[in-house]
Amino acid sequence: MSVQSHIAELQRRHAALETEINKELAHPATDPLRLAELKRRKLVLKDEIRRLVGPVTVH
């Protein structure tokens, strides 16, 4: 698997988690532990994507 295809897969999974988070928030009985776990997993993916894309320089 190339780096680009790996990044694309991570982005797809990140978007899927975003959808799942939005569904959970729309549910009247939102489970706070499930919501926290989904957000944590989404953040892990975001960090991995950033690491693979490369450093962002800020001046």
Kindly describe this structure.
The protein is mainly α and 59 residues long. It has one domain. Helices cover 78% and strands 0% of the residues. The chain has 2 helices and no strands. Helix 1 runs antiparallel to helix 2. The protein is elongated and about 40 Å long. It starts with a helix and ends in a 6-residue tail after the last helix. It comes from Aquabacter spiritensis. This is DUF465 domain-containing protein.
Would you spell out the secondary-structure blueprint of this structure?
Layout: H1 3-26, H2 32-53
**How much of the residues is beta strand, in percent?**
under 5%
> Residue-averaged pLDDT, rounded?
92
Question: What shape does the CA trace take?
Answer: elongated
Describe the sheet with the most strands: none
Tag the structure with descriptive keywords.
mainly alpha, 2 helices, elongated, DUF465_sf, 59 residues, 0% strand, single chain, DUF465 domain-containing protein, DUF465
Give a quick rundown of the structure.
With 59 residues, this protein is an all-alpha fold.
